[in-house]
Design brief:
Blueprint: H1 2-26, H2 31-50, H3 52-62, H4 68-91, H5 96-120, H6 131-134, H7 141-167, H8 172-203, H9 209-252, H10 254-266, H11 279-296, H12 303-317, H13 320-340, H14 361-371
Length: 393
């Protein structure tokens, strides 16, 4: 079970890293992005190295019993340093670099202390799961364990307080992300606290190793999940919102595209529909098809019809946007009838495009709203053969 939690946590964290990596490649000199990616990478490495199968593989390949322990503790300490650097960049201020450098040097000293105490100590019996409590009273090894646990507890405590305090000052996705990040760091503190309690019990002759082997991995796994979600929420939310707006706009334009469908098919004006496309791409595809059709209908535009319809609607509703949309809808439907009937555009001055700018995206949406309640233009065979005055655009 511990191995499953470790590997799932590692996968979640590195999935977040994969999502963030493209931004880092584009802005590789951004210290804030580097800190985020370092937190995700090192946190995932901690879970990978801490999984019992990985522990056994490292010990076996190195030939040193329990070498995986100081490596895991060094990764945890590196994660702590990255967390503190991230918090420093969040806070900002005139001394960001100096403060970040101090945290980095402090945790580098912890890593050095872990290496020295492991080299001075003696841990001949391999312990893949309960090394912290098994060697809690062993000279130097016990100090190594205490050193990394206190460093981890300090880091997650500072991260929790900073994230939750900042979350009270912001709104929206950033607030949600900070809250989740703070909650994840708080769960991470449960990891080090459970181990510290188990180690303290070992010092007094009690066996509370279940806290070390059962409680702390669950706390760490939950913390990792919350942290990766907290990091991703502010990054993903704007994109999801954009996709939602694009999907609504795409659906709203459907009546206008349906009205133009016969023309789009007969004249091969519609581009191939993109496969596995995002809503933004689909919206662009639909707008392109509509503009292609309207461009083909330009020669049939009836400026007089546009002006009359717009004036009548404006007088009835007092809404200039609705009046323009209704005028465009009338012009488009009339142009479709003229084109479908095979009429040649009349070479009369002023009968081209209506005296109005080409419809922008907002106007297209309003035209579609008008057409949502209108009947589709009849096909060529259904159009009377009598002569009409002018086409529309």
């Amino acid at each position: 079970m511990n191995s499953l939690i470790n590997y799932l946590s590692c996968g979640a964290l590195w999935l977040g890293l994969a999502v963030k990596a493209p931004d880092l490649l584009r802005h590789r000199h951004d210290p804030y992005l580097r800190a985020i990616c370092a937190v995700l990478a090192l946190a995932g490495l901690c879970f990978l190295l801490g999984a019992p199968p990985t522990v056994g593989a490292v010990n076996r390949l190195s030939g040193v019993p329990n070498l995986a322990a100081p490596l895991t503790y060094a990764a945890i300490t590196g994660y702590c340093a990255a967390s503190q650097v991230l918090v420093v960049h969040w806070r900002g201020g005139p001394r960001v670099r100096r403060t970040a450098r101090r945290w980095t040097l402090a945790y580098a000293a912890v890593v050095l202390g872990i290496a020295v105490t492991f080299a001075l100590g003696d841990a001949p019996v391999e312990r893949r799961v309960d090394l912290d409590t098994y060697y809690a009273t062993t000279p130097f090894i016990g100090q190594m364990i205490l050193l990394y646990l206190l460093a981890h507890l300090t880091a997650v405590t500072v991260t929790t307080v900073s994230a939750l305090r900042w979350a009270r000052q912001v709104r929206g996705a950033l607030r949600a992300g900070l809250t989740l990040l703070g909650a994840g760091a708080l769960c991470g503190s449960g990891y080090s606290l459970a181990k510290l309690v188990a180690v303290s019990a070992r010092w007094s002759g009690r066996d509370w190793s279940a806290l070390d082997t059962a409680v702390s991995p669950v706390a760490a796994g939950l913390g990792a999940l919350l942290i990766v979600v907290g990091v991703l929420v502010p990054l993903v939310t704007p994109r999801v919102s954009e996709w939602r707006r694009a999907a609504r706009a795409y659906a709203r334009l459907a009546p206008l595209e349906r009205a133009l469908d016969d023309l789009l098919v007969r004249r091969a004006l519609r581009l191939p529909r993109p496969r596995f496309a995002s809503p933004v791409t689909l919206l662009m595809w639909r707008r392109t098809s509509i503009h292609n059709a309207l461009g083909h209908l330009d020669a049939y535009g009836d400026g007089d019809l546009y002006d009359r319809t717009r004036a009548d609607t404006l007088a009835a509703t007092g809404d200039p946007e609705r009046a323009a949309a209704k005028a465009w809808a009338a012009v488009i439907l009339d142009a479709l009838r003229q084109e479908a009937a095979g009429r040649v555009p009349p070479p009369v001055p002023g009968t081209g495009r209506p005296p109005a700018p080409s419809p922008d995206p907002a106007t297209l949406a309003r035209i579609a709203d008008v057409l949502a309640g209108a009947e589709r233009a009849p096909a060529a065979s259904a159009v009377p053969r009598r002569r009409t005055t002018a086409g529309t655009a």
